[in-house]
Write a structure and sequence with these properties.
The protein is elongated, with a radius of gyration of 22 Å. The relative contact order is 0.12. The longest helix has 30 residues, at 73-102. The chain has a domain at 7-102. Helix 1 runs antiparallel to helix 3 and helix 3 packs antiparallel against helix 4 (73-102). It has helices spanning 7-33, 37-40, 42-67, 73-102. It is an all-alpha fold.
């Protein structure tokens, strides 16, 4: 990598970049190859997030060990990535389940089958109207 960097820094950074690249490749491959939307969510939210996280850690390690500079930009990007990826995947999954339940999506059943309705009189949390007397009912708030 660099003539002035210690060999350990080169080895650690190279291993992290290869590991990150492998995770990102596997996640991207899963995004393209898996059959249903719910299964395709796992590629970018799990493996690709870990892959990008490993590459960002490699950048932090490189600048600390080889250059002697502490950088926080990569850590901020990692925190943003690890916070937003699961939240966005959760919202996409809830909308997809709601649309399946309403019959708006004509998607073949994946290996897990078609999702059933929620048990009892429950409804999906993001689509249920607030009940009288509960927080958010706007009547007595």
């Amino acid at each position: 990598m660099s003539g002035t960097a210690p060999a350990s820094a080169d080895l650690i950074v190279s291993a992290l970049v290869v590991l990150g690249g492998a995770f990102a490749l596997i996640g991207s491959w899963g995004l393209v190859r898996l059959p249903s939307l719910m299964e395709r969510l796992h590629g970018p939210t799990k493996a690709t997030t870990l892959g990008l996280g490993a590459m960002l850690v490699a950048s932090v390690v490189w600048f600390q060990l080889a250059e002697g500079v502490w950088t926080t930009h990569e850590l901020l990007v990692s925190v943003f990535l690890f916070v937003t990826a699961p939240i966005s995947a959760n919202m996409i999954a809830k909308v997809h389940l709601h649309r399946l339940r309403q019959g708006e999506v004509s998607e073949g059943a994946g290996p897990a089958g078609t999702p059933g309705p929620p048990p009892g009189s429950a409804d999906w949390a993001t689509h249920e109207a607030p009940h009288e007397g509960t927080p958010g009912d706007f009547a007595g708030d």
